[in-house]
Design a protein that fits this description.
Oligomer: single chain
Radius of gyration: 19 Å
Distance between the termini: 66 Å
Order of helices and strands: H
Strand content: under 5%
Largest sheet: none
Helix content: over 70%
Length: about 45
Amino acid sequence: MELLGREERKTFLEVEAHLVAEDAQRARARAVVLMVAFGEDSVQ
């Protein structure tokens, strides 16, 4: 019974780490889009 609990915990942590990495990538992409939009406004 304890073995199954360990496996489930490991899987949950792997999924959670993957989701955190995806969120970080999206945040970086939004920052780049914001900088590009700001740069275009300041050029005009």
